[in-house]
Design brief:
- The structure is a single chain.
- By secondary structure, the chain is of the alpha/beta class.
- The protein has a single domain, classed as 3-Layer(aba) Sandwich (Rossmann fold), CATH 3.40.50.
- It is built from 5 helices and 4 strands.
- The strands form 2 sheets. It has a two-stranded parallel sheet.
- β3, α4 and β4 form a beta-alpha-beta unit.
- The two termini are 18 Å apart.
Length: 130
């Protein structure tokens, strides 16, 4: 999951937190492993506050790779303990989604919270909307 353009998207919701936060918690309750993959330098992502959302956080500023480099997707899958083909990557930039697909992941191009959640529920066959 990308940080800036996806995770913090509030969509049409008027709530205290973006709707994808609840979706990530639901995914984890269903046994899905989650990761944050961002081209952030490490100073912008509030790690302790998001500890309940992600099993792994990969920030390009802390590695030698950045999206859409194939290696950062492979690194993220490895840190999750998964093969790339077992991963679904969500980003608002098509170039990054193509990078994930080139690494073997399923890519979801985020255009709206509602559409992304519907697509993820279909892919994982679990309810994610709260």
């Amino acid at each position: 999951m990308d940080y800036g353009g996806v995770l913090t998207d509030r969509g049409d919701e008027v709530s205290d937190e973006p709707p994808l936060f609840g979706a990530l918690r639901a995914a984890r309750r269903h046994g899905l492993r989650t990761a944050l993959l961002s081209n952030a330098d490490g100073r912008g992502a509030p790690r302790p506050a998001w500890a309940d959302l992600f099993d792994v956080m990969v920030l390009s500023g802390e590695t030698e790779f950045a999206k859409p480099d194939r290696q950062i997707y492979l690194l993220t899958a490895d840190r999750l303990g998964l093969h790339p083909e077992e991963c679904v990557f969500v980003d608002d930039l098509a170039v990054n989604v193509r990078g994930a697909a080139a690494a073997g992941m399923v890519g979801v191009h985020h255009r709206s919270v509602e559409i992304t959640l519907e697509e993820l529920e279909t892919l994982f066959a679990v309810p994610l909307k709260g």
